[in-house]
Specification:
about 15% strand; seven-stranded mixed beta sheet; alpha/beta; single chain; about 500 residues; 21 helices; globular
Length: about 500
Amino acid sequence: MLNNISVTYASFLASYPQPRPLPAPIQFGPRGTIFAQTLRQKGISNGKRSIYNPMATQASKVSPAHSLSSSYEEYVNPQWVALLNILDMNVRYERCAGSELFTKDGRRILDFLSGYCVHNTGHNHPYIVQALKDELDKSGPAMLQSHVPEIAGELAKRLCQLAGGGLEKVYFGSSGSEGVEAAIKFARASTGRAGIVYARSSFHGLTAGALSLMNDAFWREGFGPLLQDTVGVDYGDTSALESALRSKRHAALVLEPVQAEAGIRVPSKAYLQEAQELCRKTGTLFVIDEVQTGMFRTGTFLASHQFELRPDIVILAKALSGGLMPVSAVLMTDKIYHAVYSSLRRAIVHTSTFSENSLSMRAGLASLDVLESEQLGPRAMQLGEAFRAKLRNELAPFEMVKEVRGMGLLSGIEFVAPKKMSLRVPFEAFHRIHPAMFGQIVVMRMFREKNILTQICGNNFMVLKAAPPLVVNEEHLDEFVAAIRGVVELAHTSAAFWSEALGLARRAAKI
């Protein structure tokens, strides 16, 4: 049995390209990227076949779906299982490729969430998968902790070169939250100040320090006192920011270049540049959280590049992982680095068990290879503009659609309360049940009836997020446009849309 599996596994590996060299950059068009073309050649672009793990079917026979789901519900998070059940979104994914998710019962679902911008290179990109397998086959020092991991230096060099702007050192971690925590410590060490200024409605992570830079009561409730001396100001309000920084007692200003969970809020270039200038004048470090917006999501390597910023610290994570190995990176100036690691005695004053491990570093390098070779940044910018133009055109007739906005392939559709009485009454009833009810019904119908996975923004329930993998093709984008138009039209014309909330509320009441 083991021999048969080994032969099958070897054949599986042989079907993938070697990590070096990556194909030369190509011209992209409606048929998509190298990855999409590879999937078509293997015969799964229509969702009928998969080149992915042949052992998956055997594994499913060994571990029935019911027992796995029951184990998760019993030992991990029963409330999450209950929520997915309520939303009719608890499905078993059997394989994931590019922008497509295939379920055990034969559905093909388009991913327009990307794990909250994790899967910029698509799900299970063959090049990244092979690079990780090759790294494992080396049997090298994955987490020795007592050596110089050259692969970390290689990744750090590439990140600094892509970021530019005087960012010359990198600290590696495992998550965006961990990156934010490091940035807080580094800013305090560099300036000798304790205070941190942040923008309200931000999302920086759910560890204690990161959570201290978020004002939404939902995320903070029940977790006791957080960091002292943090000040929130309205995003886009330069006067409030100037007032907060005037005291010169704050170590850093932490901002997202685009507020993703606040509703894909794209600020003016003037606001971010004035914020940077205020930091320079007051000796405050300018920290940019690019966890969701970085890695070419908005078209450029950093969204900051489109605003012509030169931050002191940049935080990356999510898509740096290739969707496979957790990794984050805190890019900083030499001055900040030397303030933290200031002597031999302090050489390991801030570190982490999984920092610089070889698999995470390899995932980061392979992800950059794919993003650059397949020109996914320029592609995201071009496709994103066309996508939003189509959305605006198709959704223009509907009074509940306020705006479509975004950068690159990070887009948001903002809804508003209707003025028409026949719509306003059920909408307000929805809102009384829960402020997120309308948005979740849209999400549920997109998933259940249109086979599209998306979600509303975490800090703005009236904005639907559309953030597909950057390898998405034009046909998939058009499918999303047609789907959301159909759901929005239903909301404006059919009582069935609004009665859905009653069923949802009943199911929730039984939990």
